[in-house]
User: Fold these one by one.
Assistant:
Number 1:
Amino acid sequence: MARILLVEDDPALSRGIIAVLKAAGHAAHCAKDGETALLLADAEPCSLVILDIGLPDISGFEVLKRLRARGSKTPILILSARDHVTDRVKGLDLGADDYLLKPFNARELGARVRALLRRDGGDPCPVLVIGNLTIDRSRATAEVCGRPLQLRRREWAVLDRLTAKVGDVVSKERLIAEVFNYDDAVARNTVEVYVARLRRKLEPDGPAIKTLKGLGYMLQAS
Ligand code: CA
């Protein structure tokens, strides 16, 4: 169980988010404006802050800036209807750990909360969130923006290897070894075919799979 501070001025949305957090076994306390959020963050240490940007007094960006200026290292998840890339970049540059666009799916919120708490040393969890992609290793399923991907067994296996090393290069040889069990009959271009199919299934909102000539593939978070 984690203590989570929710900063959200919309009462209906706030109730919905608190229900999601409680269902996951967390204790949530809520601030309806930025100044209250800063007071609560000081008074009661928490494991995660979920922060709306459009608040009635100071903006969520300002709350974020002041929390980080005070040296707070608490993970912060921004919730915002502002989908412009400059807002996302601003939030992340100011020290947010993740950015979720409104309206969002309750399951995705749950998965991102798990991911952030895990990063902070919380319970290990088989669900991994990379940008708009959520994968659940225990069920071998993947979703992009809440849309389930129909993956064949080896497509799943390739995706699983790439997500395990997100931001790093995974060589073709390694994919042949781990996904195709060193099957020599697997031509190198078979791997290319699987990667190409996977790319199509991840498009347009999922993470990109970059080809690094002569080296292999890399899954990019954004
Ligand atoms: Ca708001």
Note: The helical segments are 11-23, 34-43, 60-69, 85-93, 106-119, 153-164, 172-179, 188-202.
Number 2:
Amino acid sequence: MDLLEHQGKKLFAAAGLPVLAGTVAVTPAEALEATRRLGLPVVVKAQVKTGGRGKAGGVRVCHTRDEVEAATTEILAMTIKDKPVEAVLVEEAADIAREMYFSIALSRADRGPVLVFARGGGADIEDLARRDPAALVRRPVDPLLGLCDYQVRDVLAAAGLPRKSYAGRALDATVRAAWNLYLESDATLIEINPLALTQDGVVVCLDSKVTVDDTALFRHPDFAALAEAAADEREARARRAGLAFVELEGDIGVLGNGAGLVMSTIDQLAAAGGAAADFCDIGGGARAKVVADALQVILSGGHVSAVLVSIFGGITRCDEVARGLLQAFAETSVGVPVIVRLDGTAAAAGRAVLAEAGLPGVRVAGSAAEAVGMAVAAARGDLPPSAPVADAVPGEEEA
Ligand code: GDP
Ligand code: MN
């Protein structure tokens, strides 16, 4: 579960991490009311779950009430990386002397948490990592030992802040508080970018990115409300439908049964020059309704130019999947090519259902590999027109 910036900052504040006062607003009037309480200058920030808001114009420092009103109006009208902005955070503005980067993330390669600190930070940590690797401190943290004093000292040294200085102590306390929060909230990511040093030598978290392990949510009943508020409409819908759904950045919607099949399909698409728009696993034994829900969730993303349905039927019946596609077409205007690969249980029956229905834009591929090629071509808009669905399917034995 990914939290919005203001939700993460609430956890930060409760855990003793330094944050500035701020309020969420969904109208310019609310932003002005918040400004009255906070005092100028303020920062108006888009609350969407994506990075790069700053670059997209979704973060504005405002020195007058007119600027607050204009910035709020403009930011609320924005869509950043396909995510419509529904709220802004109005926060006291910091007078930044230096932007630093700090994160603790669960790292697959390290099989545990890794702390990363960079003395320069702000919007371009990836750049910094490439340009000046020495400016980065990267320390795996043993989950049993916890964060060690020497690791905190490494961070202070990289920051160039003496341990006894006011800012040094503040950074020390911040790093420890972040580690405690990481453990106690069962987070898999706590990222503070920028972690700023202000002109008065104060350390403050200007941004927050927090991901909580979904499988640990049962240990945090207090996060239930966060989960509701944090889920965007698509995530919530996918969760209700019982789908494992992860949005990705490409334009080919992927629907399959089983995580392994979906992941290998995504890899095959990439190898063939395409890019998946999502990871969508309908699971085993899915009924038509789940398939229909899945297709609708995939299409609701708005950046999908083709859909690839890859089913290897075991307990999942291909005819049931085909009926799900029919249902989705009946309920929604699909409007993009849908490439279908059906193999395994009741594959022939499934193809027969599709051939009979003759759904517009639906093409049945003879193999998984062919389906991938067709999906990539379809997304580019150069899938050659085909014979009717029934003719495109080579005769195959039902598994
Ligand atoms: P992101 O681009 O989505 O990561 O959004 P951030 O919250 O990190 O903000 C982007 C940039 O806006 C930061 O790197 C800062 O340079 C700037 N910024 C954010 N808050 C403040 C603030 O309080 N004062 C000033 N002067 N700049 C800020
Ligand atoms: Mn940031």
Note: Residues 193, 207 surround manganese (II) ion (ligand 2) (CB under 6 Å).
